[in-house]
Write a structure and sequence with these properties.
- The chain has 1 helix and 9 strands.
- The chain is mainly beta.
- A hairpin with a 2-residue loop joins strand 1 and strand 2.
- The mean pLDDT is about 95.
Amino acid sequence: MVEQITQGVKISVETRFKGTSYRNHRLYYVFAYFITIENKSNHTFQLTHRFWKIFDSLNKIDFVEGEGVVGQTPILKPADSYSYTSGCYLESTMGAMSGYYTMLNVEHQKNIKVQIPTFQLQSPFVLN
């Protein structure tokens, strides 16, 4: 598990290799990632946007951004946490992801960028 705290918001990430899948006649390696967001500050935040940088070891980098996460824009009061699961398809057996969440400080109506720590995506084939 990797963790990082930005302005009182803690992001924890765990990953898991889920197998392979064929899409459009190409083999992909499928990874799941489990994220927990904990509000350790005295402020209320709403997660409004996400930005991901996805690195595939075959030197391919993708960027993904959009509103919320998994169709939600959760509000976290002090001491609240929110967890979700999502996934990623890579063309190689290993890669990494990093990024940030844009979160609105509800009281002050100001956005902050909460860093998502870089995490590795590795299939068991690489570890042997």
